[in-house]
Amino acid sequence: MTGRPVRALPVTTSPEDVEELLAALRAALRGDGPAIAPHARGRAPAPSAGAGGTLGDGEDAPADPTAVVVTTSGSTGDPKAALLPASALLASAAASHDRLGGPGRWLLAVPPHTVAGVMVAVRSLTTGTRPGLCDLRDGFSPGGFAAAAAALAGTRRYTALVAAQVRRLLDAGGAALAELASFDAVLLGGGPVPAGMREAARDAGVGLVATYGTSETCGGCVYDGRPLDGTVVDTAPDDRLRVAGPVVARGYRGRPGDPAFAASPWGRRFTTDDLGAVSDGVVTVEGRVDDVVVTGGYKVSVHVVADALRRHPGVSQAAVVAVPDREWGARLAAAVVPAPQARLDPTGLRRAVSVELGPWAAPDVLVVDRLPTLGPGKVDRLALRRLVTGTPDRPDSPPPGPARDPKGAR
Fold first, then answer.
1. Based on CB atoms within 10 Å of each CB, which residue in 75, 180, 272, 275 is the most buried?
2. pLDDT of the chain, 410 residues: tens digit per residue
3. What domains lie within the chain, and their CATH numbers?
4. Angle 13-106-251 (CA atoms, 0-180°, nearest 5)?
5. How would you write 208-259 as a 3-class SS string?
6. How far apart (Å, rounded) are the C-alpha atoms in residues 205 and 178?
7. CA–CA gap between residue 409 and residue 405 (Å, rounded)
């Protein structure tokens, strides 16, 4: 069966928008309403979602309707739209509640057009509850979170956040941190856990659960390194992580036969762009394929370099990208956001990374007020590259950068 429409659904965290999202999602899961393509109100839906059109051959099934068309972050400039069938969304919600200790009330504190926000809505629908709302229309604030959390009643309570939100709540202390610690579990997604955050959360009594997943797997499908029940994670020959099982998307909108999706003994399988390892059932994410840069003959992970910067006590946030270099082929450049009242010395930060990881890993450092983002926890790497180079991306005209000797000191 083909031809079911795809409805563009603009959403915010306003009560009216979330109510409309819940109603549309309920109908989409049953299959008697259109598939929905949520997007941020005030922004046009991504063209890849094909909103306003109809689902094509292989994009829907009578017994398992495609309920949500969710756009990937597009952090590398190629956003795609994952087709999430009802079975995958419901399987993810059930497996999440099983892992966390049972159904509970959810606080929606991430944008509802993201896969994390959609899953908060799905989990709420499966438990017959409405999510609490942390209003993000004027940005995330510890005070707003505390008020929304205090108003959320329930014997078990959960929420999903990204690292920047958790950091702000840890730094705020007081009522905001007390409310954070009152949740039975706080799912942390959207990227790697910053250095020291687990320990700080544990010391504050926060039940942090680090999740790994993608839009193509209904968001987090690995909790604290262990796949949810029914999900199987292994590695491809090139060390990319592969996820198989009931939570995997049907494929991409308008991209039939995309090689990232394949059949497996455990159901649909998705090959990610994340490098990692699986040992004794524990999944370790080591960075993205395009995070590994060859500079001056050395392989360097931008993820490892960013972690080294974040360990500096004066750094609140850090992101690292590779930029072209005429002599080295590529060099690393970083944007860092200082912690409150901290004064950062770019040369000192560069020297610290050089000492810890080697001179070839030392990035050029730019201190900024904020990192460019595409959404919660997702750094816009194209915008970041433009920021650190001061020029548009032009592979044919790379910025010169400082002269360096390959495989030598910088």
1. 180
2. 458 999 999 999 999 999 999 999 999 999 999 999 999 999 888 899 999 999 999 999 999 999 999 998 655 556 799 999 999 999 999 999 999 999 999 999 999 999 999 999 999 999 999 999 999 999 899 999 999 999 999 899 999 999 889 999 999 999 999 999 999 999 999 888 877 889 999 999 999 999 999 999 999 999 999 999 999 999 999 999 999 999 999 999 999 999 999 999 999 999 999 989 999 999 999 877 877 787 867 778 888 899 999 999 999 999 999 888 766 778 899 999 999 889 999 999 999 999 998 888 999 999 999 999 876 667 888 889 899 988 654 433 333 333 333 333 33
3. 86-285 (3.40.50.12780), 296-389 (3.30.300.30)
4. 75
5. EEEEEEEHHHCEEEEECCEECCCCEEEECCCCEEEEECCCCCCEECCCCCCC
6. 9
7. 7
Contact 340, 324 (CB under 8 A): no
Residue position matching structure tokens 């995997």:
248
- Report the C-alpha gap between 53 and 60 in whole angstroms: 13
Which of 31, 29, 37 minimizes the C-alpha distance to 7? 37
Cα separation, 60 vs 380, in Å, equals 31
What is the per-residue burial (b if ≥16 Cβ within 10 Å, else e) of 153-177? ebebbbbbbbbbbbbbbbebeeebb
Q: How large is the C-alpha radius of gyration of the chain? A: 21
DSSP state of 61: -
CA–CA distance, 13 with 106 (Å, rounded to integer): 14
The pTM (predicted TM-score) of the whole model is 0.79
Nearest of 80, 134, 158, 76 to residue 385 by alpha carbon: 76
CB 244 within 8 A of CB 267: yes
3-state secondary structure of 123: helix
Alpha carbon of residue 290 to chain centroid: 16
- CB-based contact 106:131 (threshold 8 Å): yes
Q: What three-state secondary structure class fits 277?
A: strand
